[in-house]
Amino acid sequence: MSAQNVQLSRRFFDEVCNKRQRAVADQIFANDHVYHDPSSPGVAPGPAGMKELMATYHNAVNDAVWD
Questions:
Q1: Does residue 28 contact residue 10 with C-beta atoms inside 8 Å?
Q2: Number of neighbouring beta carbons within 10 Å of residue 17
Q3: Which residue among 11, 13, 26, 34 is least crowded, i.e. fewest CB within 10 A of its CB?
Q4: Taking the alpha carbons of 14, 11, 51, 56 in that order, is the dihedral positive or negative?
Q5: Dihedral Cα 46, 67, 61, 34, nearest 10 deg
Q6: For the residues of 12-31, what is the DSSP string, one character each?
Q7: First vs last Cα of the chain: how many Å apart?
């Protein structure tokens, strides 16, 4: 994995997942991003889909922390 991908991954987990700053998804996900997880079918493409998915996780487990 490239250093840039590592940095983006860390930013996703730190800012979007843990700090609940879902708007950051607009900066780090491409509009044509596809989420590939069979346990979460129907996630819309792009940043909007990731923000919706993370909102679901945040609302379901409001004290969750991703390490």
A1: no
A2: 19
A3: 34
A4: negative
A5: 20
A6: IIIIIIIS--GGGHHHHS-T
A7: 18
CA separation for the pair 11, 59 (Å, rounded):
20
Span 1-13, pLDDT tens digits: 799 999 999 999 9
Rg value, the chain, Cα = 12
The set of residues, in sequence order, having a beta carbon less than 8 Å from that of 65 and lying 6+ positions away, is 18
Q: Which residues of the chain have pLDDT under 50?
A: none
d(CA 23, CA 12): 11
Place of tokens 């945040």: 58
pLDDT over 70 percentage in the chain: 100
Q: Which two tokens stand for residue 63?
A: 């004290």
